[in-house]
Amino acid sequence: MFTKVMTLSTQTAPTADILIVDDTPDNLRLLSTMLLENGYKVRKAINGERALQAVEAVPPDLILLDIMMPGMNGYEVCGQLKASEKTQRIPVIFVSALDDAFDKVLAFDVGGADYISKPFRVQEVLARVQHQLIIRHQEQQLLRQNKQLRLRNAELKKLEANLDAYIQVVTYEVRPTIADLSDGLQQLMDQPDQDLKAAAVLEEMDQVLARQMGLLDDLVEGNQAEIEQIRNP
Fold it and tell me: What is the spatial distance between Cα 205 and Cα 17, in angstroms, rounded to a whole number?
């Protein structure tokens, strides 16, 4: 039985799907047992080709990847994963018996997130797995927040355009029309020998137009303030 490491990521471990890629059955069995006992979901692949097929079918949350395998080696697998928009953000931890500095540097150059040397220690593997899952969780949160911000910005841009269009219509079409009507009423009111009843009606109409003009001015001012708030939150 392996010791369980209790951290933030093991609290969410049941949602973490880990793919182990290794051509040695004993290594697959050891790593999978270790992870299963700590609450992770585990899938296994015995070579690079099957690993890519598994990732394409259902992208995992993290990949533990051996380097020296027949056919496609771990560097090539990681390179293909990082070349695809669908899989490039999946963290890859290399687990290999290669312990030379050149091999480790190459692992990071092709996109690896971490490197564990064989023979590995259980606590080290669990700690590094948990660390990468925390980073991935935080990255996914940031991506969701960025998406929400982009959608919000698009909505604000659309609202700004609608408000600006409304102001243009009111300023250059509706307001001049009301002003012309008011001028016409004023000319009628200025005519001599006007019937008192007709004069009263004209006066009331002029007051209505004046109130409408005031309302339009208030609306334009309010919309301009809202546009300014959108542009300078």
Answer: 74
